[in-house]
Design a protein that fits this description.
By secondary structure, the protein is of the alpha/beta class. It has two domains: 77 residues, Winged helix-like DNA-binding domain superfamily/Winged helix DNA-binding domain (Arc Repressor Mutant, subunit A), CATH 1.10.10; 129 residues, Rossmann fold (3-Layer(aba) Sandwich). The protein contains eight helices and eight strands. The mean pLDDT is 77. It holds the Pfam family DUF5615.
Length: 208
């Protein structure tokens, strides 16, 4: 399970994110919306979608499509393939900064009110999204729990420096891009540490 509206099951549609309870890929809905389909069109085209159960999910897809179209129309889309999953503990200013720079950032707070750790770990790995978090322990858990971990960016800034993390993370991503994949990156005031996957004997503590 990923959210109350979207799910990932390795046995369904090759593990692609689908509308919960269906075999309809989220990417299909995104494409249809970007091509001009309305919610009424989608409900008519796919009978398993119902206004009561799925209008909220279509709304999420529409917002994602609108953001993507805005970036494309204004020449803001980046050619980078690196993608991100922002934990609810991540300051949303970081999400906005990366999106403004044209990066694909999925924010947990926008798609679900709560997710178990295991669900987010699975989603990050399945979609190959680098996790953005401000929680050291959860970030390290994500990094070491799976061999295919796409990586973690741990943000450690004091509460009186809210503008700095967003600017710093955006610059970090712009300068390093795909090189951050598979790494445990710690971002602190005046200091950034990028660590590759540790050896099994060094998995107990994050490199802080």
């Amino acid at each position: 399970m990923v959210t109350d509206r979207i799910e990932i099951n390795p046995a369904v549609m090759l593990g692609k994110p689908v509308i919960r309870g269906t075999r309809i890929p989220v990417e299909l809905i995104l494409r249809k919306l970007s091509e001009g389909a309305t919610e009424a069109d989608l409900l008519d085209a796919y009978p398993r979608l119902t206004p009561r159960r799925h209008s909220g999910c279509i709304g999420v897809c529409r917002r994602l499509t609108s953001a993507r179209n805005h970036f494309a129309a204004n020449g803001l889309m980046t050619t980078s393939t690196v993608r991100f999953l922002a934990d609810e503990s991540c300051d949303f200013a970081v999400v906005r900064a990366l999106r403004t720079a044209g990066y694909d950032v999925l924010a947990v707070s926008e798609v679900t009110c709560r997710s178990d750790d295991s669900e987010l770990i699975a989603q990050a790995a399945q979609e190959q999204r680098i996790l953005l978090t401000e929680d050291k322990d959860f970030g390290w858990l994500v990094f070491v729990s799976r061999a295919d971990s796409p990586g973690v960016i741990l943000i450690r800034f004091p509460g009186n420096a809210r503008k700095a993390p967003a600017q710093t993370v955006r610059q970090l991503v712009q300068e390093n891009g795909e090189a951050l994949s598979g790494c445990f990156t710690v971002v602190q005031p005046g200091h950034i540490r990028i660590t590759r996957k540790p050896s099994p004997e060094n998995l107990n503590q994050p490199p802080l």
